[in-house]
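Repro:
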Amino acid sequence: MKRTRIPTRARLLAVAAWLALAAPALPAQTVYRVVGPDGSVIFSDQPPVSKGKASTLPPGTPSTAPAVAPTVTLPLALRQAVSKFPVTLYAGDGCEPCNHGRTLLASRGIPFTERTVTTVEDAEALQQLSGQKSLPMLTIGKQRLTGFMSLDWSQYLDAAGYPASSLLPPGYRNPPASPLALAAPKPVKAPAESAPESAPPPPASAPAEAEPTDIKF
């Protein structure tokens, strides 16, 4: 009678990670910043609605799915991993762990989407999305990993079926990074009635954009 070999600890860890990832994957989440009539700010994963129709994003808004050239086709194994467990990196400026995480993904040829956290609105959106403001954050399907730990990231990527070394074909490119909090487009105002011409006022200087001070790396 053939004996069954007992899995090693490393194998058990990989299987446990795979089971955690086995649920259907969700696409990279986009958070919308909506300003209410009373001036209150609300963050939501649903696009704002105006007069019964959903507002659309401004032209040129980056897609949440990895972008490839029309003639580029990913290998079958890689296509399956991307379809079941899409990868999204949440990163910030001046974040060394974020750079290490990005380098790991690039070295393994992982197709991924990047969301940047650089403004107060981005930080608030990250808080609502993950319950904290620590960077980097990596999502693999529905699995969320906070903080860069090379071993943990590699184990989850392995369990999701991503190759250990790059299989990306020539011509592949990830989409450009985009802000986590995408502001809703402003409603178009009706043209004002014509008024007597007057000298235009001097242009006002734009206020400096506030930067988040409590992001943790």
